[in-house]
Amino acid sequence: MTPAKAAELLPQALAAQDWETARKALKRLLRADAGNASLHYNLGLVLRRLGEADAAEASFAAALKLAPDHLNALFEKAAAAMDAGRHEVAEAGFALYVGKAPQDADGWLNLARLRLRRDAAGEAEQAFDRVLALRPSDKDAAIGKAEAGLRLGRPEASSNLRALFAELPGERPRLLKAMSQGPRGTIPLSSLALTSKTQPAGAG
C-alpha cells in the first residue's frame, strides 16, 4: 500500500469503523512520516477500539514524546492503562492530566473512580467534588460522592444514597450494593469504562 493509497483509505475506514483497515493505513502512513504526533495519536485510538491496550498506550506515549502538550494523548494514555488493568499507572496518568487540564470534568471523574477503587475514599470524594463543581448534574459523580461518603462514615451519606435511589431508578442495582456495604465494606463501582476524548480523525 502506498502512502497516497493509505491516505485515501483512512477516512473511509474510520467512517465505516473498519478499525483493522484503519490500523493498516495509519501504520503505512507512519512508515512515511514517523514524526507525526497526530498519526501516532489516531493509531492509539484505533488500537483501543481493537482492544489492544498495550499497543495503544505505546502509541499515545509516542505522540506525547513528539508533542508533550498533546492533552488528549495524555488522557487516552491513562485510559489505555486502565484498559490494560494497570490501575496505579492510570490513576497517576489522570492525576497528571487534571493538573494540566483542571477544567475537564471527565478527567476528574476517571481519577475519582480510580481512587475509589483503591479505597482512597477521601481523595475520591475530593475528586468527585471537582466533577460536581464543573458539572453539577453529573449523576455518576453524585453517586460516587455518596459511595465515598458512606465509606468514610459520613452521617449524611445514607440519606444521600436513599435520595438518589428515588431519583435515579436506573441506577438502583448499583445504589443497593453501595447501601448494603456500610462504612467498612468495599465500595463497588458500577463501571470503570472510560470514554475517549475524541473519535479517531483523518491523518493530520
UniProtKB/TrEMBL annotation:
Q: Which UniProt keywords apply?
A: TPR repeat
In this chain the TPR repeats are located at 37-70, 105-138
Return the SUPFAM superfamilies for the record.
Answer: TPR-like
Signal peptide segment: none
Protein name per its UniProtKB record? Tetratricopeptide repeat-containing protein
Species per Swiss-Prot/TrEMBL record = Stappia indica
